[in-house]
Amino acid sequence: MRGEASAYGDGMSIESEVLEVSVGWDAALVRNDAEAVGAVMDDGWVYVGSTGATPKADIVGWIASGQLAHHTMETVGDARVVSYGDSVIVTARKQSSGTWDGVAYTADEWISEVYVRSDGRWLCVLSHKCPVEV
Q: pTM of the prediction?
């Protein structure tokens, strides 16, 4: 079932709710707030990239230690947000900058995030990124 109305009765669509969570997650990343970043992730969350799957504990630990620092995170164009019952997929092009082990980086990537409703809140269970090819 796609595009259901919000269970909260506030008129906000499920897609809008999840997009709001995703935007807030990006803001937490730019603040390098490891606790807030981790709060959006399900305990079983993984990030899938070119080197394989990375668990939540690694990402949150790297942010908490300062090994990974985000300086910017911007969505390019509109995100695609589609609900399937109590699951939502967000797909967007994002450009970011920061440091990894003190070395500056920039990234231009396509990201897909899978969210599920758990105990009345939206949690990300999977993030996948791949570089933009032009």
A: 0.89
